[in-house]
Design brief:
single chain, alpha/beta, twelve-stranded mixed β-sheet, five-stranded parallel β-sheet, binds threonylcarbamoyladenylate, binds magnesium ion, L-threonylcarbamoyladenylate synthase, transferase, cytoplasm, tRNA processing
Length: 349
């Protein structure tokens, strides 16, 4: 099977293609679509067989639960129950948007979708193409990121085609995503709300709405051995083919350390990649040097992270050195993904 692809923009959605993709989902098929975070691989969330197909297409372990996407506030009640007041408050403030909430599931949601759990992850994306597709599909779309398990999440339709082009029915191509990192996941099933996966919405922003919000100790970069609560955060995700090391410290020292290490590797004939920023681009000469974006614009760093990791795979580099990106708002989310890609290999200078 080769997926059909329909190109469109949020401003000019292709209504016919969206309806057709909605029919695909209603009849148990799989459709990839853009969201504001990353591309999703959608199937009907209330259909156990569709969820099984999603796991098979991604090559994903079936104990790693899927996120149920909705496009109407009132549809939350169909998939979740005993919804705490602060969860409603957060939904009111952040939906539609890059927020996923973990809640108690209803009978409507099959265990195939929740990986056997009694809780369900729910998200109401802001992307207009995603919303139209969810409604065309009947309101409930299970969607993990549309990558092969273990590869960086897709931020363009080309990434989806690369991984899944012959495994799914269709792809709605809405161009490059906005944010580039997956949604913030907040767990409401154990008292104080807890962030299970950092994203565009950070702890400080959530605390302004909810008061105290905890951070799952398992996702803090300093503690790679503590078990994260979200099953998906336990796998070594986002893994580039090359051996990636993150070099941290003051900019000048980082640059000179990366130059030194890259030089040593290249002297041995090893193909080296370097992830730098617009600010430091001219400091590097040898190797496959890629700027991820500008430190003065952290959103650009988040948007380009996964694409750059894929480019290095295509370039067949063997070793990658990356600067660290502890930026003010999304630094925690960016470093969480980068550290996972590096298998927590970091060097402090
Ligand atoms: O931004 C996003 O959230 C994207 C787009 C497509 O919406 N989706 C996405 O899905 O990132 P996925 O499957 O790649 O990641 C879902 C994460 C996994 O880490 C999974 O373990 C966790 O959510 N998760 C899902 N249901 C859960 C539950 N009931 N309890 C704890 N973690 C859960
Ligand atoms: Mg994923």
């Amino acid at each position: 099977m080769k997926a059909w692809v329909a190109r469109m923009t949020e401003e000019h959605p292709d209504e016919d293609a969206i309806q057709k993709a909605g029919e695909v989902l209603k009849s148990g098929g799989l459709a990839a679509f853009p969201t504001e975070t990353v591309y999703g691989l959608g199937g009907n969330a209330l259909d156990a067989a569709a969820s099984k197909k999603i796991y098979a297409a991604k090559g994903r372990p079936s104990d790693n639960p899927l996120i149920v996407h909705i496009a109407r506030m009132e549809d939350l009640e169909t998939v979740a129950r005993n919804i705490p007041e602060n969860a409603r408050k957060l939904a009111e403030a952040c939906w539609p948007g890059p927020l996923t909430m973990i809640l108690e599931k209803t009978e409507a949601v099959p265990y195939e979708t929740t990986g056997g759990l009694d809780t369900v992850a729910v998200r109401f994306p802001s992307n207009k193409i995603a919303q139209a597709l969810i409604l065309a599909a009947g309101g409930f779309v299970a969607a993990p990121s549309a990558n092969t398990s273990g590869r960086p999440s897709p931020t363009t339709a080309a990434h989806v085609i690369e991984d899944l082009g012959d495994k799914i029915d269709c792809i709605l191509d809405g161009g490059m995503v906005d944010i580039g990192l997956e949604s913030t996941i907040v767990d409401f099933t154990e008292g104080t709300p807890m962030i299970l996966r950092p994203g565009y919405l950070n702890q400080e922003m959530l605390e302004k709405i909810l008061g105290t919000v905890k951070m799952d100790p398992g996702i803090l970069a300093e503690q790679p051995n503590t078990r994260p609560k979200a099953p998906g955060m336990r796998y070594r995700h986002y893994a580039p083919k090359a051996d990636l090391t993150i070099v941290e410290g003051p900019e000048k020292e980082v640059v000179s350390k990366i130059r030194e290490l890259a030089g040593q590797q290249m002297a041995q004939g090893i193909r080296v990649g370097i992830i730098c920023t617009d600010e430091t681009r001219t400091e590097y000469s040898g190797g496959d040097v890629k700027s991820i974006g500008a430190r003065s614009d952290e959103a650009s760093i988040a948007r380009h992270l996964y694409g750059i990791l894929r480019e290095f795979d295509d370039d067949h580099v063997e070793v990658i050195y990356s600067e660290a990106f502890d930026t003010p708002k999304m630094g925690q989310a960016i470093m969480n993904r980068l550290l996972k890609a590096a298998g927590h290999k970091r060097l402090k200078v």
